[in-house]
Structure formats: structure tokens, C-alpha cells
Amino acid sequence: MRHRAYWISIGISLVIIFGLTGAWATHHRALHQFRGEQTRTATLLLPGDGGNWLSLRSMTLTLSQPHVATHSLTAHVATNGHVSWEQLRPVRADNPVVPVLFADNTHPQREARQLVGVLNDLATRYHITHVNFVGHSSGGTIALAYLNLAHPAPVTVTHLVCIGADFPGIAPLTRQYPQLRILNLAGMVDAVPNDGEVPLSDARRLGSLVRGHVASYRFKIMHGHLWQVEHSLLHESGPVDREIATFLYRPN
After folding, report:
1. What DSSP state is assigned to residue 42?
2. Is a pLDDT exceeding 80 seen at residue 9?
3. More confident residue, 150 or 21
4. Residues 135, 163: contact at Cβ < 8 Å?
5. Which residues pair with 181 in a beta bridge?
6. Among 68, 82, 160, 227, which residue is least crowded by beta carbons within 10 Å?
């Protein structure tokens, strides 16, 4: 029995490894045929709890390819809120993508307040007037908390994509955002109603927090196996990237 259990565990491990390998191999090809509208609206990528460049790297690289978007800037936010910029390319009408990396990356409410400085800089230094937010896990919490701030930055948020987010401690929106469209993506591993971490019921809460205050809201479940839609892999998923690109950039 011990040997049988050993070989079963080996078999399960190999299935997961091959599944992950296949998913990663197809991930970066997900948008090769995509052609979208090109504008100066910047898309800010907001990481989850404890997130860093490794959390956002895969999504950034997949989005940043010809006819989709361009990784133009990276914002580095110090613990005291000071923002420093790494510029990779000129900011143009080519759907600039901006990963936002917080040194203090475990306090969404504080990160939401620090996001004001990032957006102020985008407006004054790079003449960005419109932005999208894409938040994985507590990155969605950061975005919602920002939208509830009394004094947000002088930029217009046009789209928000939440990925595997659950919004603990977030109050319903109090301000009207008539231009804001929201897409809420949640993972469901096989027949289990969660992504291994966030239950679908928690992800659905976003609807009650925003309805009546935004232009549109849509909830979509991303079905798949563990190696496709597990919580920490949702931001490394080809189908998720296609949903995001289609929602943000309106394919031609």
C-alpha cells in the first residue's frame, strides 16, 4: 500500500507539472492575434497581498506586445509614499501599461492612498488623463478603496478589472462614476466553487458594492483545472489575459 500511495502521488505531481508547463507555454501566445484600439489611457497593474514584480511580470509581458499594449513605465512606491519611476519607452497612444510596485505591500488601504501620488505623477509628468485599473486579489481591494477616497487624483478611471478579489472591509461606493465599467473575474477549480483561496460568494460581493454607481458591472467565472485557475495563477492565464484585453482595448 505504501508503494502504491507513493506512485499515486508521483502520478498526481506529474499531471500537475505537465499541466502547468502546457498552461505557461500557451499563456504568452494568448494575444498574438489580438488587435485592439490604441489610446493614451494607461493601464495600472495592482498586485495582491505581498505582491511584487514577479507577481505582475507574466501579465505585463503578455499584454506588452505589438497591437495590444506597451510596457512604458513602472512605478516604485516607497514605504513613505514617495514615487520613483522607471521609464522603458515613451508614453504614447499605444495603451501604456504601468505595473505599480509598493514597498509596503500588505496594507491595501494605505496602498490606495499612496496610489494618489502615482496618479498625480502620471497626470503632471506624463500628461495621462485617463487610466484603467487591473487588480489581482487585494489589488482589487486597493482599487475599490481608492475609488472611495475623499480626494482622489485628477484623472478619470474608465475601466476596472478585478481578478480573484474578495474586498474585505470595503464599503460600498459613495461617489458616482458614470464612465466606469467593471469586469470581475473569479476562478473556479473544477467543480469546487472557489479558486483555492477566494470563494465565488466572496468575489460576487463586488456587485453589491458598486451597482448604481458605475456605468456597467459584469461578473464572470473562469473555469479550469488547478494549474489553470488557482488563485495565484489567475494572473498567469491566457484566457484571463484575453478577457482583460478584450474588455480594455476593444478589438478591431
Report:
1. E
2. no
3. 150
4. yes
5. 159, 216
6. 82
φ, ψ for residue 149 (rounded to 5)?
-65, 145
Domain positions in the chain: 31-249
Distance of alpha carbon 199 from alpha carbon 203, whole angstroms: 7
Tell whether pTM > 0.85.
yes
Predicted confidence (pLDDT) per residue in 11-20, tens digit: 444 444 444 4
Closest among 140, 86, 151 to 117, alpha carbons compared: 151
Model pLDDT, residue 20 = 46
CATH code of 31-249, in short, is 3.40.50.1820
Pairing of strands 73-77, 83-87: antiparallel
Cα–Cα distances in Å, from 239 out to 8, 94, 150, 211?
30, 22, 36, 26
The angle that helices 108-126 and 138-147 make with each other, rounded to 10 degrees, is 70
Q: Which residues pair with 157 in a beta bridge?
A: 131
| Location of C-alpha cell 473555469 | 223
Distance CA 191, CA 41 (A): 38
